[in-house]
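// run 5 | inverse folding | seed 20
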């Protein structure tokens, strides 16, 4: 390798520039430690809040509900306890498919949907010109029979007088026996003709009555006071008591459906496993789907004596006691069957049987919580009660089921919040987060 001579003087010059500046300020070696100390202080101050934030984020998120008393949980303010909910349809207790008694063409329709009718009112009429003619002929027959009767009576009276003359002549020996016998025969024949004429009159009058009934059968009358809720025929259509082929809108020959809207009820079906909870006369709350914010008072009118084998259901009828014009047949309705109780007395507890005026001790309030809040812990029912931001496990004593709720005889007070569907990550007195909360 060849070393050039001009490189060495340059290196000597560089070394000459290396010297200590005696006038420079001294280094601050404490500054890094001060920064570290400040960071430590900040970390110590922030750590509790950060730890609480992390614990809060890691806490299980839960839904809650509050333990309530029936008076506060029933929208209508009723203190009756719910037992069962069923759905069905509004129907009129009295409803009739009104049809014709005889076939023919409709000449008159005196109603539309919504028309109010009175019992016995003619609401439709079939063409009856032929029946009118038959009735006129029958009435003429009566007049003819009456004229024949008058003639027969006159002949009978004449023959009776002739018989009396022949008897007087025969007594004096003037008339012969043959003449007297002939007069007696003529009188008997005349009397028989009178009876025949009277029978003819009765027969003619019966034919008039039959024809009048046929004419009346051409009229369709309302069977009771009500409202036409369905019109099934129009003027000019041919109808029959048994229906007309191809006209399925008139089942059985009905031309209208009339209902008494003063007595409405809900036709519902209850599973046979739950029918034991119901009894005739028990109160109920009725809601129609069209007016969910309005409830109506009801009462169980009838529980059918037989069940449907195929569906395993029993039909139940619930009368609507305060229905108004908004409630209409065929509307969908829900029925909440209720069990009446003395206010603020726990049904099923020993005090419920002895809670009477003068009984010792205050009556225990009925507390209801959702069934979803009850968990099983070692074979015993428990709930998780919320206090602040923590949940505590608490053993409870349960009472009767109330649809989606259950009575709590002990362990939970009214107003306390409980966890719904408790997750397995809950710990006793552990922190929780409420869904939708801050």
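// decoded
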């Amino acid at each position: 390798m060849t070393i050039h001579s001009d490189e060495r003087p340059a290196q000597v010059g560089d070394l000459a520039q290396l010297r200590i500046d005696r006038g420079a300020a001294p280094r601050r070696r404490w500054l890094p430690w001060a920064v570290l100390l400040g960071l430590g202080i900040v970390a110590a101050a922030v750590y509790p809040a950060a730890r609480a934030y992390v614990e809060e984020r890691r806490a299980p998120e839960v839904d809650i509900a509050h333990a309530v008393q029936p008076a506060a949980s029933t929208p209508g303010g009723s203190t009756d306890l719910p037992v069962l909910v069923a759905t069905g349809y509004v129907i009129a207790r009295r409803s009739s498919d009104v049809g014709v008694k005889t076939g023919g063409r409709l000449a008159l329709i005196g109603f539309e949907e919504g028309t109010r009718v009175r019992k016995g009112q003619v609401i439709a009429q079939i063409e009856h010109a032929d029946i009118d003619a038959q009735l006129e002929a029958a009435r003429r027959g009566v007049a003819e029979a009456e004229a024949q009767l008058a003639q027969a009576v006159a002949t009978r009276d004449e023959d009776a007088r002739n018989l009396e003359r022949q008897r007087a002549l025969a007594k004096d020996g003037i008339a012969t026996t043959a003449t007297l016998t002939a007069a007696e025969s003529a009188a008997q024949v005349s009397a028989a003709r009178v009876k025949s004429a009277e029978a003819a009159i009765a027969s003619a009058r019966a034919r008039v009555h039959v024809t009048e009934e046929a004419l009346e059968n051409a009229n369709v009358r309302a069977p009771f006071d009500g409202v036409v809720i369905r019109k099934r025929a129009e003027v000019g259509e041919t109808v029959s008591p048994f229906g007309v082929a191809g006209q399925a809108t008139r089942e059985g020959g009905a031309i209208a459906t009339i209902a008494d809207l003063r007595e409405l009820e809900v036709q519902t079906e209850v599973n046979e496993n739950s029918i034991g909870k119901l009894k005739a006369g028990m109160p109920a709350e009725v809601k129609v789907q069209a007016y969910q914010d309005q409830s109506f008072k009801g009462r169980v009118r009838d529980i059918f004596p037989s069940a449907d084998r195929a569906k395993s259901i029993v039909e139940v009828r619930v009368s609507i006691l305060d229905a108004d014009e908004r409630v209409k047949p065929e509307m969908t309705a829900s029925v909440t069957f209720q069990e009446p109780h003395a206010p603020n007395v726990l049904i099923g507890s020993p005090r419920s049987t002895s809670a009477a005026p003068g009984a010792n001790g205050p009556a225990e309030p009925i507390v209801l919580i959702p069934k979803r809040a009850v968990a099983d812990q070692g074979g015993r029912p428990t709930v998780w009660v919320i206090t602040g931001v923590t949940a505590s496990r608490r053993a409870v004593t349960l009472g009767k089921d109330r649809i989606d709720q259950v009575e709590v005889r002990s362990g939970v007070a009214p107003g306390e919040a409980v966890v719904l569907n408790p997750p397995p990550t809950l710990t006793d007195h552990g922190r929780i987060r409420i869904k939708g909360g801050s």
